[in-house]
């Protein structure tokens, strides 16, 4: 994940300044064919590129709407994929059109024409990684992740189709998404394997006479091999 931060401080949602205790994550997609982050995130930080219409969401009410999310995933000016955090994670966002705003961190994935498999898989992977990051930050599991359309079915979000009008076009769903988050969480939560110490053992000789062996042992210990010992076979 390429995570950067540009808080939308001019957005009325930011200015409302309400905080929440995040209980889960809601995945959105923008519903418009425009994969460029600069469409939503601005002003240009040198990587986003310039939004020539100046209609990004770092303004009071973008397009006259009260909307704001915690992050966007899409393309930088150079065409690579990045995540931009646009609200503090515990800020109350305006993304769900329902009570999920009080409980869920919401992020948008920027849609393109919905048919480009390589763009989709890059955005999907970035979204999985963002969710894993947030799961670790807040102790969520993959079960705490829903998309907007699932939120609607649960009665906590407005009637939108995202992301289930897009993911299935590329053989994915929210179930595969959760499974992929779970897989990555297991990998990342695995404690690191203890490093096995390597020993280079030195044998200084074998003696048929016990006294000789003990004499050699004494010598070895005097020479600083304090761990030296006699082994009878
Ligand atoms: Zn949505």
Automatic annotation (TrEMBL):
Matching InterPro entries, A to Z?
Answer: Amidase/PGRP_sf, Amidase_domain, NAMLAA_amidase_2, SPOR-like_dom, SPOR-like_sf
EC number of the protein: 3.5.1.28
Top enzyme class? hydrolase
Pfam families per UniProt: Amidase_2, SPOR
One GO biological process this protein is involved in is: peptidoglycan catabolic process
In terms of Gene3D superfamilies, this protein maps to: Peptidoglycan recognition protein-like
A molecular function (GO) held by this record is: peptidoglycan binding
**Domain of life from the UniProt record:** Bacteria
**Where does the sequence pass through the membrane?**
none
Query: Which UniProt keywords are present, listed alphabetically?
Result: Cell wall biogenesis/degradation, Hydrolase
Instruction: Give the protein's recorded name.
Output: N-acetylmuramoyl-L-alanine amidase
The organism named in the record is Pullulanibacillus pueri
């Amino acid at each position: 994940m390429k995570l950067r931060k540009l808080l939308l401080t001019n957005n009325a949602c930011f200015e409302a300044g309400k905080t929440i205790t995040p209980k889960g994550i809601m995945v959105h997609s923008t519903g418009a064919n425009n994969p460029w982050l600069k469409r939503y995130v601005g002003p240009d930080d040198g990587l986003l590129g310039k939004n020539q219409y100046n209609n990004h969401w770092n303004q009071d009410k973008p397009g006259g709407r009260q909307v704001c999310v915690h992050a966007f995933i899409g393309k930088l000016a150079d065409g690579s994929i990045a995540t931009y955090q646009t609200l503090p994670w515990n800020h109350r966002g305006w993304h769900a059109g329902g009570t999920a705003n009080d409980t869920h961190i919401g992020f948008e994935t920027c849609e393109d024409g919905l048919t480009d498999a390589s763009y989709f898989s890059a955005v999907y992977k970035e979204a999985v990684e963002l969710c894993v990051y947030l799961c670790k930050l807040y102790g969520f599991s993959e079960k705490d992740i829903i998309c907007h359309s699932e939120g609607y079915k649960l009665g906590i979000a407005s009637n939108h189709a995202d992301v289930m009008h897009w993911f299935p076009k590329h053989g994915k769903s929210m179930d595969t998404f959760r499974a992929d988050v779970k897989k990555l969480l297991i990998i990342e939560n695995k404690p690191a394997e203890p490093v096995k110490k390597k020993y280079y053992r030195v044998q200084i000789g074998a003696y048929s006479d016990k006294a000789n062996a003990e004499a050699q042992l004494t010598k070895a210990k005097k020479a600083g091999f304090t761990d030296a010992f006699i082994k009878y076979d």
